[in-house]
Amino acid sequence: MPSKQDILDLYFMDARCKLIDIAAFLDRMDRFDGEPDYRYNSFHEALDALLKPGDQSRAQAVLNTLSDQSEEPIPKATIQGASGAPNKQSGN
Amino acid sequence: MVSRTTDDYQAMAIAGCEAICEPAFWAGFDRSSAQGFYDYYRQLTDYEPKRAAKFGIKHFCWLCINPKEAEDSGFAREVMAIIPEFLDQPTVLGIGEIGLNKNTVSELTIFEEHVAIAQQHDLPILIHTPHLEDKLKGTRLIIDALNNAKVDPNKVIIDHVEEHTAGMVLDQGFWAGMTLYPESKCTLPRAVDILENFGMENIWMNSACDWGISDPLAVAKCMQEMKKRQHSRETIHQVVYDNPVKFLSQSPNFSL
Predict the structure, then answer these.
(1) Which candidate, B228, B233, B231, B208, places its Cα nearest to that of B219?
(2) FRET partner for B59 with CA separation of 20 to 30 A, picked from B96, B187, B241, B244?
């Protein structure tokens, strides 16, 4: 199995790049006018989950934060696609 | 692969691909009539096997009306009435990819009716779980419905698992599939993470080959990713070849 050093050698540069992309995305959001929708809050909640995953893995904590936690099927679809974050007001 | 050029078949053959299992899925738009599905099933069961055969690849398919077009249950039932006519075609593996998209009442009803068709014909089932924010809830609803229908979990593969759903699928005795995407969903390094965390049994991976940004060589590239993580040749072979063959051999039409 690979060591931590091997994993750093394989993935550090890619993870670093993605981390800076996230920072730049948040800076971009700050720079422009208007009100963000539910996805923005969900993104921040996911960042919190990343830092404090509790008893889950970090990936699980982020995915669960970005998931619809309701349990019953909805009466009807209003869209076909997915936005990546639960819209708690629309039910989708 | 109805959404792919012949060049992709050629590239897959060069990469060592022996067989393709193409699920019936969304056309990128909603079809306007059940007859449109009849033509689609002809394409899947007749034309695509011939196109793949030119490159030495065996082509199999799964049949259904996909969950994105299952919101209108009357229309979905019209389409489902056509399916038995095609089940005897020599390259049909079973029912799929059925499942849920937005987790609606109608989608769930049509999912359950598809499961009943598979049970009547004793065929394996390929299941699509919803994407992104809908996946967790959809996977739970699907597992509940399968358990209620008393389906043999060994004959079901639940696809598009990710870190938060793989455990619940495997723990219930179902097979798990990981569909690999270049962006937005399960990437190659994450797929290898899932294998390392959940084990190499009853799990496979497949390349997304749809209308979005996707890569028919994703499985071949993930083999390289596993190699970089120092997995043995035997382990890689198990995941990308032995496991799919084991699951698919439950279909009477599957042979290599």
Answers:
(1) B208
(2) B187
